[in-house]
Amino acid sequence: MSHAFLKRRSGAGRVAPRLAAALLLALSASACRQDMHDAPKYEPLEYSDFFKDHRASRQLIQGTIARGQLKEDKLLYTGHDGDALSETFPFPVTKGVLDRGQERFNIYCTPCHSRVGDGNGMVAQRGFKHPPSFHDDRLRSMPPGYFVSVMTNGFATMPSYALQVKAEDRWAIAAYIKALQLSHHASASDLTPEDKLKVDRGYVEASAPAPAARPATPEGETHGE
Questions:
Q1: Is residue 146 a contact partner of residue 136, using CB atoms and an 8 Å limit?
Q2: Which of 134, 146, 161, 221 has the smallest CB count inside 10 Å?
Q3: Cα(55)–Cα(44) distance, rounded to whole angstroms?
Q4: DSSP for the chain?
């Protein structure tokens, strides 16, 4: 047997243990990864023999509060000042607040209440129970905290909108509702001279007849000045 052949055989003998070790390491690693995938654990709401009530999902510790859900400001989140419905707002009512309230009102409230708040929204026109008009004497006398409370908790067939409308926006909507109520029962004497002038100018512009349509010009022709 030649010297070269013996050398090749001895080299192959050294490679085989290395290959076996590599394969063993790969198998061990994959087994470990699969063990992590299949680690013993409880799925949500799974049955458990460990606890007396057999529920794997445990109740939160008493007093646990989700981050950002402390809600210490009772007035802001409930519409109540102590035990009474609040007559005041938790922040200044600016034009920006009213604009925000109008935007949120048009999105969430008009389907039932309509844009003017008379309870004749499109949903009500199609068979849903008509809500009361915001311009009824009973609702006109209600403080803003009442509307915030209704939006937060729901009332009669109206569900709670606490999930859809954040607390600050509920107050903005309440402010806009009070502005709507005021606008429907305001008189010209309540306006400043500047506002009265704007109203009169708008009325004149709305009452003016539309300008007559100019006759169509045949293609290729022009009218002289």
A1: no
A2: 221
A3: 9
A4: --HHHHHHHHHHHHHHHHHHHHHHHHHHHHHHHHHHHT---PPTT-B-SSSTT-BSSPPPPTT---TT-----HHHHHSEETTEE-SS-SS---HHHHHHHHHHHHHHTHHHH-TTSSS--HHHHTTSPPPPPTTSHHHHTS-HHHHHHHHHH-BTTBPP-TTTS-HHHHHHHHHHHHHHHHHHT--GGGS-HHHHHHHHHHHHHHHSPPPPPPPPPPTT-----
Residue 103: C-alpha distances to residues 64, 96, 110 (Å): 35, 11, 10
- 214: which 2 tokens? 């100019």
pLDDT digits (tens, 9 = 90+) for 104-158: 999 999 999 999 999 999 999 999 999 999 999 999 999 999 999 999 999 999 9
Amino acid at 39: A
The closest alpha carbon to 108, from 79, 142, 90, 131, belongs to 131
* pLDDT tens, position by position, 177-197: 999 999 988 888 888 888 888
